[in-house]
Amino acid sequence: MKAIVIHTAKDLRIEELETEKPGPGEVEIRLAAGGICGSDLHYYNHGGFGTVRLKEPMILGHEVSGHVAALGEGVSDLAIGDLVAVSPSRPCGACDYCLKGLPNHCFHMRFYGSAMPFPHIQGAFRERLVAKASQCVKAEGLSAGEAAMAEPLSVTLHATRRAGEMLGERVLVTGCGPIGTLSILAARRAGAAKIVAADLSERALGFARAVGADRTVNLSEDRDGLVPFSENKGTFDVLYECSGAQPALVAGIQALRPRGVIVQLGLGGDMALPMMAITAKELDLRGSFRFHEEFATAVKLMQGGLIDVKPLITHTLPLGEALKAFEIASDKGQSMKTQIAFA
Ligand SMILES: [Zn+2]
Ligand SMILES: [Zn+2]
Fold it and tell me: What pLDDT, on the 0 to 100 scale, is given for residue 49?
């Protein structure tokens, strides 16, 4: 089978690897679709992010779906041919955090395609993937591409949980890449009454409108575009900060009303904070990282037609054109979500 392996920055190879056999409780999956995520792009373009660096070749990818091709011993709830979304979240189930019900903070997390631990956790961009049956969520009724969107959608569902009350709330989303636009869908589904989206790119804002933003603010045309929302101590109840850019966070904080909630999703490295405003307005600053049980919810919401991610899938390229797919995905002027078709 072929797999997409990153060696160092810009050295991406399609390599031939041995197929594995599913053990007890596992299934073999014939991969169908794999979405390229920001973290894959960091490994591809820069060989890592922050202090996380590639130290050995690593199979990329964690946003995948496919068809069940073989069943390991004892697997009874899946059948050969089923389309499944495969969760990349693989907590140990036994550490303190797992036992506390916080599996996304597992000490021994084996999240696909991560160079955080060494040896690195190999990813899921491979023609055949052996996974635990418990990672697989049946996705009948969805396209393989939609099923592969369950992962980034779960990230935003988890963020929405972290945000707390959403019914009738006024929401600001800064940064309208895949996570920002999916946050718009998640916030709306959770009951947000008004959603304003801000970005530097008019094209990204077009996607924000396509998935339901009520208003968009282009901060490259108007640096002070969020200032009107800062009047009378602010407008928004919740900020989804998805850009990882400090100016967006600062402008967003000014536009939050007292007791508002900041959910930080963007991973842009450390930044200086307007702590006076956070203190004086009694704002809550909450991080949000990955997800766990939200994965099955993401599939369910898409299957029920309650969230439509289709407008965000802009490119699908065959495995043989993986390199081109990574180039397109790196170009925000072209791509929203680029996926690789494995079959
Ligand atoms: Zn991702
Ligand atoms: Zn654990």
Answer: 87
pTM of the model: 0.96
Q: Residues near 273 by Cβ (< 8 Å), separated by ≥ 6?
A: 249, 253, 285
Q: What is the CA radius of gyration of the chain?
A: 20
What ligand is nearest to the CA atom of residue 36? Answer: 1
The pLDDT of residue 91 is above 90: yes
**Structure confidence at residue 245 as a pLDDT band (50, 70, 90):** very high
Return residues with CB closer than 5 A to ligand 1 (ion): 37
Residue 267's pLDDT is 85
The CA 63 to ligand 1 mean position distance, Å, reads 6
In this prediction, residue 104 carries a pLDDT of 94
Rounded to the nearest whole angstrom, what is the distance from the C-alpha of residue 224 to the centroid of ligand 1?
A: 31
Distance 117 CA to ligand 2 centre (A): 14
Distance 273 CA to ligand 1 centre (A): 26
Task: Please tell me the distance from the alpha carbon of residue 283 to that of residue 237, in angstroms, as a whole number.
Answer: 10
Distance of alpha carbon 209 from alpha carbon 103, whole angstroms: 34
